[in-house]
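W.,

You were right to be curious about this one. When I first looked at the sequence I had no strong expectations either way, so I just let the prediction run and decided to look at it fresh. Below is the sequence, 145 residues in total, followed by the output.
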Amino acid sequence: MAAGRALGVSLAVHGGAVALLALGLARPPERPHTEPVPVAEPVMRYALSLVRASRPKSATAPEQVKKWAAFGASVRAAQYLVLGAKARALTSGRYHVSFDDIRALAHPVMRHRVLTNFHAQSEGITSDALVDRLLETVPVPRSGM
């Protein structure tokens, strides 16, 4: 932060997004820019399914998660999957969130929220490996059309 001030720039955090603001020249947004981006219910359910399956005591958890995870992700992970997916959609020139957006954000959002147990650590299994397994096993909803 001190380095930013020396350069005449400050960091402001709004809704999980970091915005660079020139001191005195710009005002931080009152709402996150991602708020108006629509998210279809199946996309939200998919984010929730990924997070729910990361918990070792969940009935939907894959065997590898039950065996190697000490703790899974909380509801906050689903919230940030959706928020990050909204930002990714906007930066990709789209005004809607896709399943691919959720999948692309799974590692950065969940790797520090899915904690491995001693057995996983002794076998060299990482949180990223567990997130990979979640992406392989949690089905992406299909369109009924």
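Here's what jumped out at me. The CA atoms of residues 24 and 124 lie 50 Å apart. And, maybe more interesting for your project: The chain is about 50% helix and 10% strand.

Coffee later to discuss?

I.
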